[in-house]
Structures are given as C-alpha cells and as structure tokens.
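Message: Just now I want nothing more than another pair of eyes on a protein record. I am handing you a single protein, as its sequence and its fold in token form. As I understand it, each token names a local backbone shape. Take your time, and here it is.
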Amino acid sequence: MKEGYIKQEDRKKILLLCDDIRMTSGISTMAREIVVGTAHRFNWINLGGGINHPEEGKKLDICASTNEHAGIEDSSVFIYPVKGYGNMEWLRQPIQLEKPDALMIFTDPRYWIWLFQGEHEIRKQLPIIYLNIWDDLPYPMYNKSYYESCDALFAISKQTENINRVVLGEVAEEKIIKYIPHGINESIFFPITEAMPEYLAMDEFKKQLFKGKEYEFTLLYNARNIRRKSAPDLMLAWKLFRDSLPKDKADKVAFVMHTQMKDEHGTDLIAVRDMMFGKEGGNVIFSQHKHPAQVMNLLYNITDGCALVSSNEGWGLSLTEAMMAGKPIIATVTGGMQDQMRFEDENGKWVKFTEEFGSNHRGKYKKHGKWAFPVFPNNHSLVGSIPTPYIYDDRVSTDDIASQIQEIYAIKTNQVAEYGSHTRLETYEEICKAAYEWVTSDESMMSARWMSKNIIEGIEETLEKWTPRYSYELIPVETLNQPIHYNPYLIAK
C-alpha cells in the first residue's frame, strides 16, 4: 500500500483550475504529476481549460489511467472540460455538484480574473490555493489583490516566494506561503545506458532524427516559439559558435529545435535559419512532433546539453527535464532558472532572496552548480501591457550565449585547450552526473515525489487552518442622539 494512503471515501476533494491535465503544455504536465502523485490522499476534479475545447460540457472519468500511474485501485479523478478559461457559472456547477473541500488555481491569475472577482462568493464555501507559476521583478504590486484573495500561495521558485511575501507585506503573516518547485518524474526522465532496454529505442530515434548522420556535439532547445523564450537569439548564438570552428568541425555539430517552426507570438524560425545559413542550414534540425514524455526522454539523452535563454521565465521546465536525463544546461540568470543553477552565497549555501536582494541577475553571486552554464543579463529593460503594467526584460548577449555553448562543446569533445576557458576542471561525465544528482536530491526538491509531498503538506495545512471568509460583517456602532429609526448595526465591507 502506498505510504500515507487514505481510502477514497475518506479523502478530501480538490477542485483544480488549470489547463486540461491531458494536454501537453507545461501547466498540464505538472498538474498531471500533482494529481497522480497525490491521488492516494485527495480526490480531484479538474476544471480543464482549452482553446475551443471539443469536449466542453462533458464530465470525463480518468480514474482507470490514474490508477495505473498512481499505483492504487481507487483514485477519483474527473475532468470538466471548459472552452477557454471558463466563467463563474462554469465554476458554480462543479462546486454545487462535487462539493469540493478546496479550490486550487494553477496558472497566471489574469486568465481567471472572473474567479477573483467572485472571491467573496467562493471563500464563504472553500479556501482558495494559488499555485503561483510565475511573477517577476520589479515587485508586482498590481498583483496584491490577487494574492490577498487567496488563503495559500505555493510558489514554484525562490524568487516568486519572495515576491509573494514582499507584495503582501504584513498580510503575508496571515497566509500559508510555501516553496514548491516543479518536480519531474524520475521513472520517465533519466539517463539511458547501454544496459537499459530503452537504449535500442534511443539509438533508433537518434538515427531517424539525424537521418543517420553522426555528430560530435548536439545542443537542444525545447520550448515554445514565443518572444520571451528568445529562440532567434539562441539560433544567432549557434551561428556565432559554429563560425568560431573550422569547417570540418562545424559540420560535426547540430542544433535541435523542438518547437513550432512558425508562431504568431514568436517568429518564423525557418526564415531566420535561411537568412543566417542559406541552403547550408547550419545543421539546425527542427523537431515539432508532440512526443509523449517517454520519447522526450530519448531526445534529451541523444543531445549533449539543453539551452533556454528566456528574457523572463517562471521556471523553465525543459532545463529540469534535461538535468533529470543527466545533461548540462545553459540558461539566462532570471526567474526560476536561477534555482536550477544553484547559485551559492558567501557561506556556500543555496542563495535566498529578500526584499533588498530579489534576484541574482546582476551577478552578485557567481558560484553555481558544475552542471550550469549561466548567461548573465547585460540589458535590463522594462516592458509591460495593460494586465501586466511592468516587468523586467532580462536580455542577454548572443556572444555570451555562444561562449557557453563553446564551453560545453570543448568539454564534451575534450578540446578545452583549443576552445575552452580553462575555468572548468570537471569532465563531461562528471558534469552530467552532478546534474542528475542535484535535480534528484532532497535539497533541490525538483522531483515529482518531492513536489507531491509538498503539495500534500500545503493543502492539508490550508484545510486545517481555513475558516470561511465573508465579504462583510456587522459592526456595532455606539453614538448619541440617534433618530428613532437608527439601526445600531452598520454594514461594513
């Protein structure tokens, strides 16, 4: 029996508002891990959003598949598909029918403004838990009302946890605030060796992707093609790196871009590639199939490193998956990607953020995990929109990105004397081992088992401390010489 198992009839029921957990988005992937990892302690209802959802209006039973992955026989997991992100009427129905014990929202709050507008109605019946995937500096005071509407805030990064506390101010003492980083399933993502049955599948996948060609070094980009992910900048850095090599060596390196080749929120990456490399193509290989997680593990294993140089980022899930597969990472020093690089303070401790030190993007601390190849921002600009009035854009130099690509290349190909900076004394194998050991460690808490454990503790603490909150209360008012019709109670919001 699974540790901490509770019978279905005795479990608390949680209503989860996020993307449909069967989808392939980062939110869906993590939400699914949370549901599966906690199905022995909670029953789940997913109000699952999706653009033009074809199953809107249905109630879907996914208990059987959950049982298989959770290792139990009596899970209770249902999905109410919603077109877009729903509305208050869509929420009232599952609350009335399912009578959940808590509501958890897992995405950007601006997608669910209607929920926060109805907070007074919801919190009379059940607590609101906000799994905060992303917030960035400068301190987003415009989010204070969202934070105050919640009974608990679970932050996926150390930076976000600090932001929650600073923005809330004294109100933070009334809230449950926990650091719960994204957790990757160790049974799905792992380093593949020749002795494993997955090795043959990996070898075949490699031949198909590279069309039988052998490369000495390969780099992976696995993220959406949207502006802040900076995919064109990474491609330019790849060109700078290749240009630094003799032609015979440049022909033996490849860049795999697992993303949409064209996206209205990003760019036309085919056009970018053709502009930079012409017919030669620069050994830029596009992969855009929506592979299941097991196949994605093959992709991480056949490449030699993973790069994500977003100008701002909540977490950067592909980096965690890459480390779980035992690969080094190149990343912008911003948001949750800082956690994954494990910067150390002057005492050798994993850095903590405070109101005065909200981010390490300025490079106060330079020492980091040996698996990390950080790129510090050199352009700090302010961007915004109506719903998000201001946010820092941490841009990085393509020259700096290219230098870090070259560093991993030099270590991987044993050419440090020719191309490396001589600052790294570890072998490529040692770096890969360190990446896997760190991401699966109890200190990092970046595995699915730790995420599930932390979610269980956070929800149970919330349920234990929660009391209904009403939008108003009656306050007695004592004054002299009131008219005869005076009501001694004043309704105050």
